[in-house]
Design goal:
alpha+beta; two-stranded antiparallel ribbon; 6 helices; globular
């Protein structure tokens, strides 16, 4: 049996296309129906009110890729929450600490109950730990709701 290091090294050696990967999320990935529908809608929603709206399409592409490639389903099965995967803190600025916004065009190559391994374009992996910050008292919402409450 191959170790996770061998699998990660093999995955990191593959070239990675960083162009936007926009596609609908098939319902075969075991996501709850409501989440799947919200992700499908997310692709067509206008950007929320953020300082740099050009950042929004790559975030959406990364969120869709998480679902399409099956990582969101796997993470949910391992105990990750929707907010761990797609949640942003609504504090007037839009601080984010979810996996979808951490990807920045990169791809997940491995995930466990607490950590996702993200392939880097430089051949190095990055670790994303879920629940890195305490958001007690802050309003966390999924990407598909972010910035739309006050519209």
């Amino acid at each position: 049996m191959r170790s996770w290091r061998e699998i990660a090294a093999e995955a990191l050696g593959e070239p990675h296309n960083t162009s936007a990967l926009r596609a609908t999320v098939p319902d075969t990935h075991g996501l709850p129906d409501a989440v799947r529908r919200d992700l499908e809608r997310l692709e067509y929603l206008p950007p929320p009110r953020i300082d740099n709206p050009k950042l929004w399409p790559p975030i959406v592409a990364d969120a869709l890729r998480l679902a399409r490639d099956g990582w969101a389903e796997r993470a949910l099965a391992l105990g990750w929450s929707i907010n761990d995967l797609f949640g942003v803190v609504h504090d007037g600025i839009g601080y984010s600490d979810c996996l979808a916004t951490a990807l920045r065009g990169r791809r997940v190559i491995m995930i466990d109950a607490d950590v996702a391994v993200i392939a880097g374009s430089d051949g190095k992996a990055t670790l994303f730990s879920r629940g890195r910050h305490d958001h007690t008292g802050e309003q966390i919402m999924p990407l598909w709701q972010f910035g739309r409450a006050e519209r």
